[in-house]
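Page 42, continued from yesterday. The earlier attempt failed because a stray header line got pasted into the input along with the sequence. Redoing it now with the clean sequence only.
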Amino acid sequence: MLEHYLDQLGDMLHLCADTDGILIVNKQGVIEYHSMPMPAYYTHEDTVGKHILDIYPSLTEETSTILTVLRTGIPSYKKVQRLINDRGQNVTLESTTLPIIVGSNVEGVVDSSHFFEIGHRVVRSGPNGELSTLDSIITENTCMKKLKQRIWDAAQTNSPVIIYGEIGTGKKLAAEALHREGPRANGPFIVQNCAAMHDDDDSFYCESAGDEKNLFELADGGTLLLDEFDCLSHALQAKLIKALSRNKRHAINAPDAAYDVRVVAAMNDDPYAALREKRLREDLYYKLGVIKLRMPPLREHADDIPLLMRYFIDKYNLEMKRSVHVVSSMVESILRQYSWPGNVQELKNVIEGALVSMRSDTLRINDVREVLLSVSGRGSLPGMLDSTPPANSESFSLNEALENYEKGIILQALQETHSISQAARRLGISRQNLQYRLQKYNI
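This time it went through. Structure tokens are written below.
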């Protein structure tokens, strides 16, 4: 019997070693103990004595891992849950729940959680906190490889960073890599969406009355990512300046500097343009713009498109249990020529959307046409994808549209290269295949 209890105790001590929060819940589902190093979320007084369904009313007896383990006595490991708490906040967490067994009865549970999202903030800590690394930046492009080296170099410092680039270029991915690849990897990684903040928000600076913590206290020893930084109003910029005066990374000759936070600001606009247009305060720019990283749009490294396509196809083959292994040369040509205003994120969405309804092993034009139109939200795309029947034509067909488009891209490839072999390589087909098409279209 003693050995059984020691085994339980060992499992629970191991569970408590790396966690964002521990709950002990009795067999009635009432919280008896609470430990969480994030009092800005919930304190001991907020939760102890309450039923778990009172704290998370979006759960039920069936969907709550805690109540399920109380009922069955079967441990639950690393279960990801998306909940709404009693404050109306969206919460994403990963929980491991172990039963407390006395004799043959389940007398309670110990629940350990890692928090990934709380309201508009993302809270992830530790080297295995599901954050991206430099390996997550998929590229064979020379300029992108240089950018990865710059990110790694920057990660070894504590200097503040501004990351800027168009939507979908991977700014958040780069920020996560800055955190994971540097000395702060074991510290908290806090993300604040600046677009969700209001002028009366005290998240940057408050006097810490009671247990309420500001963003710098939450991120102390780690990284604070200010996402959509160009949405920050002048009033909030002033509050941020005040908060930075207490941060060791920004304070000058300030013995009362209370926090040790690396600040990373991610913005869609060029910071120089925001500075010229007076949308960004000069003093704030000079505090945060020590290192500037520009994430290039996909059209500037279009040679990565085939590699990224294959990466996303492999990813969704696995997740959706598909078996797509071939991309038609026409689809590849179209995707290489498309301007990708949504950048890598848009390419990811296109591949994911196409594979949802696919059952064959080949990605063809019909698989991507509607997806591209819906993802782009513009209802028009270049080349064949934008083709519509001539107003007075009764003989227009899909085959004719495909042939017209194919002929057009062949002519374009011939104009931009110096030989049939070069044109074939540009089109991603063999020389013999291109010669066949030249004869077919009488080119």
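Notes: The chain has four domains: 2-115, 123-296, 302-386, 398-440.
Reminder to self: strip header lines before submitting.
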